[in-house]
Amino acid sequence: MKATEIDLHKELKKYFGFNNFKGLQEDVVRSIISGQNTFVIMPTGGGKSLCYQLPALVLPGTAIVVSPLIALMKNQVDAIRSLSSETGIAHVLNSSLTKTEIAQVKKDITDGVTKLLYVAPESLTKEEYTQFLNTVPISFVAIDEAHCISEWGHDFRPEYRNLRNIISQLGDVPIIGLTATATPKVQEDILKNLDMPDANTFKASFNRPNLYYEIRPKQKTVESDIIRFIRQHKGKSGVIYCLSRKKVEEIAQVLQVNGISAVPYHAGLDAKTRAKHQDMFLMEDVDVVVATIAFGMGIDKPDVRFVIHHDIPKSLESYYQETGRAGRDGGEGHCLAYYSYKDIEKLEKFMSGKPVAEQEIGFALLQEVVAYAETSMSRRKFLLHYFGEEFDEETGEGADMDDNVRNPKKKTEAKEQVVTVLEVVRDTKQLYKSKEIIFTLTGKINAVIKAHRTDAQPFFGTGKDFDEKHWMALIRQVLVEGYLDKDIETYGILKLTPKGEEFIKNPVSFLMTEDHNYEETDDENTVTAAKSSGVSDEVLAGMLKDLRKKVAKKLGVPPFVV
Ligand code: ADP
Ligand code: MG
Prior knowledge:
Elements: H1 8-16, H2 25-33, E1 38-41, H3 48-58, E2 62-66, H4 70-81, E3 90-93, H5 99-110, E4 116-119, H6 121-124, H7 127-133, E5 138-143, H8 163-169, E6 175-179, H9 184-193, E7 200-203, E8 211-217, H10 222-232, E9 237-241, H11 245-257, E10 262-265, H12 271-282, E11 288-291, E12 304-309, H13 316-323, E13 333-339, H14 341-351, H15 356-374, H16 379-386, H17 403-406, E14 412-413, H18 415-427, H19 434-442, H20 447-451, H21 453-456, H22 468-480, E15 484-487, E16 493-496, H23 498-505, E17 511-512, H24 528-532, H25 537-555
Parallel strand pairs: 1-6, 1-7, 2-4, 2-5, 3-4, 5-6, 8-13, 9-11, 9-12, 10-11, 12-13
Antiparallel strand pairs: 14-17, 15-16
Helix pairs in contact: 2-3, 14-15, 18-23, 19-22
Bound molecules: adenosine-5'-diphosphate and magnesium ion.
EC number: 5.6.2.4
Protein name: DNA helicase RecQ
GO cellular component, one term: replisome
């Protein structure tokens, strides 16, 4: 169908009540309507759903929407049904349906009533469903949260790997992939796995100019630091992310005894409590949710004013997604993360139980988190570079919105050093990771260097005047400036880019800053905060008990539930 034949603005208004498309929506919609494979990369909240919902509503046939979470599908179906007088306009097909319900869904599809059919990937692979879907006209298949296809994404789902096969069985239907994951590697995986190298690709900017990024070293006083931060943001909504359920409970309690209205949220709580705590947060009965990553998928509270990471997350994507829940309304959003290398080691230890391939991916992603935390360059520039996006730190939107830019370190000229680094990369046949380059410069040997001894010889020990930390900082900055490229698939081997080759020939000024030197600290003792604010163990226990009673009374549940 020709998109030009449809008055898209009229349809937009008719179905959704919106006067205008947001961002790239209109182009995406046109691409889908014209029957082309389409790939959409937009940050969370960017309006991806409408990109396939509108075409589904105006095209003949039924669109299949693959989505990983039943809750997300149900929300969308309810929303679509509310736009129409026909309940059958959207359905979810899943294993919990009764025979009668399945019959109704099939009838609505056959009658041409159903425009959107939501399915979980595991349901779509069921032969019974595929056979049926093969007999009805399908307008297109949309794969929401398409990053689930990639092991390099933050939410890998093996079932997503089979989607291409199933879709092929449905005949020649266009495929639409949608994701909020912006890393080039994940995008490449998606296109490859869905076998649509020719897809029309639409990528929106991932810059969130209203978010302020800050990293603080994690010290024993982290809890009192958080309390102070929240007090400075009195009455504002915020989320605190912790890695373990235990930590979530502990922090929630420490906040409560300090008079901050906070509730815990994690998968270990029963569904009823979780729903209750979520509602309390949305309805502003409490200011703070202390949560594991179980909290957030599909949560749309526009005025979250801060997101605190008590523990640094395991990848920059998780960090971006989680911090992204702040300032959805465009207002203030303070993203504060506590970092200590000990936490990184804990995460590594945790990963070491996993299969080797998964481990290596995990370590590679973790190294990016380390680099982001330790760098003293523009955090926004670093983050956007990780997502394959260039950012001008002088003129870009939100350029001054991070701790590093607000409190800049002294810059020093490093032109010659950059040339040296680039030459090492070039002359060692581009087989080195940062570690080998740094070792070569500081005169250390490892197995990889031994294997390229002759190539590395001219540079061996020539950078001894600086320590490893200095060279690491420089390499990180050289990467972000695009003179080197890191191949994440090979777990970090560095390659010279054309821009880097040019730099060797015609070096220009390169001002660098040293990385942060965060003191190593630990946070083993969580009660420290309460103690340091002058509360004894006994008093603390008593306070907790009273508080539990109070909260329980408010929730109408027995005290042991909270
Ligand atoms: P994503 O899936 O990209 O995270 P959603 O599809 O959930 O984003 O949309 C985010 C929000 O943007 C929703 O509240 C939606 O109603 C709103 N929205 C989408 N398109 C438009 C538009 N054209 N005009 C105004 N609001 C829109
Ligand atoms: Mg979405």
